[in-house]
Amino acid sequence: MDVDLRKLRYFVAVAEESHFGRAAARLHITQPVLSRQIRVLEHELGAQLFTRGKQATALTAAGRQLLEDARPLLASAQALGRRVQRAARGASTFTVGFMPGITVTGAVRDFTDRHPELDVQVVRTSWDTQVQAVREGLLDVSFVRLPVDHRGLTLRPVFREPRVAVLPARHRLAGKQSIGIADLAAERLLQDPDAVSEWRDLPDRISDEEAGPRPAFRNVEEKLEYVATSGGVLVLPLSTAAYTPTPMSPTCPSTTLAPTRSASPGARTGALR
Hints:
Blueprint: H1 5-17, H2 20-27, H3 31-45, E1 50-52, E2 57-59, H4 61-88, E3 93-98, H5 105-114, E4 119-124, H6 132-135, E5 141-145, E6 153-161, E7 163-166, H7 197-200, H8 208-211, H9 220-230, E8 234-237, H10 238-243, E9 251-253, E10 260-267
Parallel strand pairs: 3-4, 3-5
Antiparallel strand pairs: 1-2, 5-10, 6-10, 7-8, 7-9
């Protein structure tokens, strides 16, 4: 069965907006056209994707599965278009992404020496963009912090390093030689819990409802300043904490946090060699 990418884009818009009217406005089409296209997609897939209510639209189990698969598929299609257009223009650039704290100077210099015909550029990424930028064709390869969703990408392990807890200067744990993950159970974590799976597994950790919504941060520097001025806790790779130091936020090594792993994923059509 051939999948129509346009219908997938329509589906993702409805899934993200949870409302056909808002999705139609976002897509600049009429709501009846959008509803008809979604019904056609459901017929083609042989599954109901949404439960439709007066106030909101919710995903079914089939819809949740399709959303999980549709996003990387659409990103790959977008990346394909960018790479083809770049090839048509005769562009000779190669873009390398890197997360804060990961030094790529040596690898980039070696690659440039072996490929002098390329204009090699480096781009700083974040937790939210480190893989998506590769999928969308904005980066050819990227040095990332694991875990990541690497479907459709080639992943090569690079190195491992310890993680530390970043705390306010007057925190009860500040100054300790080391701490355990259980010591952070009552703390407000200021990052995606998926990045600290050990904290997510704590049976007595502070609940998401008690912690409240996390502030919106654009980068790790803003997170560190928030810790220093407003409290909360971050768990970071040692190199990231050293790369972006905040004098008021000491770090504590942890004896129970597994070392973080870094890797280099690239689109299957290109890798840093």
